[in-house]
Amino acid sequence: MAEKKNAKTVTVEQTGSPIRRPADQRATLIGLGLNRMGRRRTLTDTPQVRGMIAKVAHLVRVVEDKA
């Protein structure tokens, strides 16, 4: 999968535990590359990624990059 050089990115941090959450929410966290509280991932800002973030918005937060 080729990425553009200047593709926009979004950084998400896991703030909530997947314990006692539905399996699809756990799978969404894994799909985002998050599996521990406090872990951060920088992802390409696409509609698919934004949809995944919206699905687990109560378990993650979007981190503002200081650039």
Walk me through the topology.
Blueprint: E1 9-14, H1 23-31, E2 40-44, H2 47-55, E3 60-63
Antiparallel strand pairs: 1-2, 1-3
Structure overview:
The chain has 67 residues and is an alpha+beta fold. It has one domain (9-63): Ribosomal protein L30/L7 (Ribosomal Protein L30, Chain: A, 2-Layer Sandwich). It contains two helices and three strands; from the N terminus they run βαβαβ. A three-stranded antiparallel sheet has the order 2-1-3, with no helix packed on it. The model has no long low-confidence stretch (mean pLDDT 92).
Main-sheet strand order equals 2-1-3
CATH T-level topology = Ribosomal Protein L30, Chain: A
What proportion of the residues form beta strands (DSSP E)?
Answer: 15-25%
- Spans of 5+ residues with little confidence (pLDDT < 50)? none
| Strand runs, count | 3
